[in-house]
Design brief:
Mean pLDDT: 77
Oligomer: single chain
Shape: elongated
Largest sheet: 5 strands, mixed
Number of helices: 12
Low-confidence stretches: 172-177
Structural class: alpha+beta
Length: 426
Amino acid sequence: MIEVVSVTMLVVPLRRKLRAPLALSILGLAAALAAASLPVFLIDYEPLSQASFLGALLNTSLLLGAGVVTLHLLTGTRYLQLLFLMLIVKSYGEYTLTISLVAQQTFFPARAELTLLFMVGIYAVTLPLVLLFLIKLVRPLMEEGGKLPFWNYLWVVPMGFYAVYCLGIYTNYLGVISLTATLAGLTIMLFWTLGTFGTYVVMVKMLSITVVASRMQERLALSELQMEMQLRRLEAIQSSIEEARRAKHDLRHHINTLRGLLQRGDLDKVAEYLDQYAASLPDAQQTFCENPSVDAILGYYAALCDSSRIRYQFTARLPQSLGGKEQDVCAVLSNLLENACEACARQAQGPRTLEVKAALSGQDMLAITVHNSYGGRVETDSDGLFYSSKRPGKVLGIGTQSVRGIAAHSGGLARFSHTEQTFTAS
């Protein structure tokens, strides 16, 4: 029963990320966990038997390893996230078994068959609550903050609770329960379980609040950047208007000058004067897109490209309004363009180039591609996440993580690729 419940609990929170049908995924995970348990049963060596501490440790390690690898293949989720989930589910299953055994030995010591009945009762009461915790709290945290660095250490917490349970409550790890079969022993186990999962709930809730605050701070910074971009855009437009006013005011004088030159028949002077006048006219303000927010971002980075001697080409076929997607689109575009411009600016050799394409595909799909040159090396971790080239040490880049998070939250996909000279994000 524990195995069936555990497999279901592992698959349900990850259902939206499954690459295979649900039934096939459950069967695959169950087969992998069953295969991982076979070595301990088949080993004919007393120190590594199932009843020994080392044998139980080996069995648990194989189960955790097989579960994490299989779920990674099925969902693409990071290994340490899956280890955190596996430890919570395994703890829940073993705590349930322990409470059932202690309750049976306390109240009905001569009827071992009632252990299963106690387990069914506990699952009936607690399983919906634990599934609610996994779906409503753990899954959003894995999806929204899946690339944040706290996952490198978060698994240590359930691992620590599980180790204390194994060494302090369950002697020989899989052997005889060390708690006495009394009401006091049952009370201790109940409080241990409630305390453990209460800690998990508080910890995950606090991290979720931290992720939300981080997203809000990021959006606030983006809003400030957009305001700055739009102010610069408005200043440029205002400057163009003033130049046009001055040109209109001086137009009468230019007409009189040209009339005088024509009356004298000096056509060469007329042509020279017109060339000088055309060169003195202000450049028209370039517009990249109908959407004002996106146009402001592209205008800002176009000016940055001009000052950094970066050849650029921006093509944005977007409507005037993007509805509720506008803030996410601006966040993605700003992050990608900031990274691209900084990569080009650090480029010591070769032409600096930047190309942006953005267009709607159908009613709800928006495609953005940013292609830029760069110099140096691109470094990634074991999960393919990019290290920041702006900060010393192995620190994950915030911009690409933000783009991945926004794409995943919107039901989209973020892809990054690179050659020795170019980097592409789409």
